[in-house]
Structure formats: C-alpha cells, structure tokens
Amino acid sequence: MIELSGIQWMAVADILAFAVVALFSLTIYLLISQSRVLFRFRNSISVSVSLTINATIFAGLILRSYVNASHGNSVSVGFANGSFNGTLRLGEWLIGIPLQIIVILSILSISRSRKRQILQKLIPATLLMIILGFFAAINADKGLRFMIAGLAILPFLYVLTFLLRNFTEPLNHELPDISWGFKTLRKLLIMTWSAYPIIFLIQISQDSIAGSAGVFVGTQTALSLLDVITKGGITLIILSIARSQSEAEGAPE
Hints:
- The protein is mostly helical.
- It has a single domain (about 1-250), classed as Rhopdopsin 7-helix transmembrane proteins (Up-down Bundle).
- The chain contains 7 helices and 3 strands, in the order E-H-H-E-E-H-H-H-H-H.
- It has helices spanning about 5-35, 40-70, 90-105, 110-140, 140-165, 175-205, 215-250; strands at about 1-5, 70, 75.
- The chain has a 3-stranded antiparallel sheet with strand order 1-3-2.
- Strand 2 (about 70) and strand 3 form a beta hairpin.
- Helix 1 (about 5-35) runs parallel beside helix 7, helix 2 (about 40-70) runs antiparallel to helix 7 (about 215-250) and helix 3 runs antiparallel to helix 4 (about 110-140).
- The longest helix has about 35 residues, at about 215-250.
- The radius of gyration is 19 Å and the shape is globular.
- About 35% of the residues are buried.
- The mean pLDDT is about 80.
C-alpha cells in the first residue's frame, strides 16, 4: 500500500485521464485525415489508428485499475486482487511496439519481402524484451530484477539500432518535407524509446515492488506522457510524410 497526499493522488488520476483523452482524440483525428492521403498510403494510417486504439484501451484499463485500487489517498500496489496493475503497460507494449514497428516500416520505400524479413527479426526480439521485462517487474528479489532487466535491454537495443539503420536513405529524400519528417521521426524514436528503459530501471530499483510514493507518482506521470508523445509523435509524423508524398504525386491538399 502506497500512501499518497491528496495532490499526488489527483495528479496521477489527472495524467492517466489525460492519456486516455489525448490518445482517443488522436484516433479520431487520424480517422478523419485518412481520406487526405493517396490510397497506397492509407494502410500506414490504418495501422496508426490500430496503434492509437490499442493505446487508448490500455490507458483506460490503467486508469480504472488505479481508481479501483485506491482507498482514500492510499493505493494498493502489487499482484493481489484489487491492486493497481502496473503490468498492464507491458500488455500494451506487447501489442503496441510491434504495431509501431509495422507503421514505421509501412512508410519506408523498401520491398515487401524486405519488410517481411525485418519483421521476422524484430518481432521475436520485441516479444523477448517484453517477456523479460515482465519477469523483472514481478520478481521480489531486487538483484534478480536488475539481472533480468539487463537481459531485457539487449533485445531492446537490437530493435532500436536495427530500425535506425533503415533510416539512412529516407533522410536524404529530395523533398524537404519528407526528409524533415524522417529526420524528426528518427530523433523521436531515439529520445522516447531510450527514456522507457531508464524509467523502468528506476521503477524496479525500489526495495519493494510497490516502491515509494514519489517514485510511483513520477513513473506513472512519465510513462503516461511518454505513451502520448511516442504514439502521437510517430502517428502524426507518419501522417505528415504520407500527406507530403501524396501532394507530391498530385493528390489534392
């Protein structure tokens, strides 16, 4: 059980609710904007919509879990019935990270067979990363948590570096808007994806699974904001690239 002040409890509730509303609004915007790109780019937007819908559903589940686990300003954290289920984020990442990889690959000008080869390498690495992260999160032994988390970072680094290597050619695109979009997407991936393992390590560094009130408020706030920035940034940049390419090929603005 974590004892929060009234302000801390409200801050976490507000940021979790903000994530739900922001991700839902983003989904609506993507759906409305889908008709403004050429047909061959609409698959990228459809995958983006799937990504934001998945994130919205899990953000809602996390908010409900937080409210149900609260008793006044105290929050029950752990794995007992009625406790706050922080591992819901891992469930969201289990679906969301592969979708992020798919939506990024969908906008790259590479062959379908090459995309399939990349997915066959990255999806197993992603699943391994999240499974190891789950066992690190639920382990009661602090030393073992760090050891498993260290193993989980290895496939994470593999996935991130593999993706970034495939951005070399699009960065020099002849159209400035498209080149800018890929450069921005590359920077966003580096910044946001690098932040997740840092927050995760802070979370598991606590002596107990519940941790302190300050760390709980900080990690929930940071993870919620990161989810919105990552999903929002990736999908909006993908939409911008798709629209720029569509306009360059004669589609109406």
